Amino acid sequence: MTRLIASNAIVVALAVTALGALLAPIAVRRGRRDWLNLVYAAVYTNFVLVTISTLALVWGLVSHDFSISYVAQVGSRATPTFYTIISLWGALEGSIVFWAWVLGMYAAAVVWFNRKREGNLVPYAAATILVVAVFFHILLLGPANPFQAVFPVPFDGPGPNPLLQNHILMGVHPPLLYLGYVGFTVPFAFAMGAMFSGEVASDEWIRLTRRWTLTAWGFQSAAIIAGMWWSYEVLGWGGYWAWDPVENASFIPWLTATAFLHSVMVQERRGMLKLWNLNLMVGTFVLTILGTFLTRSGIISSVHAFTQGTIGYYFLGFIALVLVVTLVMVAGNSDKLGSEGRLDAPFSRETAFLLNNLFFTVFMFTVLIGTLFPLVAEAARGIKVSVGTPFFNRMSIPLMVALLFLMGVGPALPWRKGAGPEVKAKLLPGVVLGVVAGVLVLVAGARNIYAVLAFVFAGFALGVNVEEFVRGANARVKAHGEGWLTALSRLVAGNRRRYGGYVAHIGIVLVALGVTASSTFKTEQEATLKPGESLTVSGHTVRFKNAWGREEKQRQVIGATMEVMDGARVVGVIEPRMNYYPTSSSPVPTPQVRSMLSGDLYLNLMAFKQDGSNVTVKVIWEPLVPWIWFGGFVVCFGAIIGVWPGRERAPRAAAVPAAATPRTEGQS
Amino acid sequence: MTMKKKTKWGALAAVGVLAIAFGWLIYGGLDSNVVYFLTPKELAAKGEQGFDVPVRLGGQVKPGSVTWDDKALDLRFAVTDGTQEIAVHSKGAPPQMFKDGQGVVVEGRYGRDGVFESTSLMVKHSNEYKAPTKGERPAEMYKSLMKSAGT
Question: Considering the domain boundaries, does residue B73 fall inside one?
Answer without folding.
Answer: yes
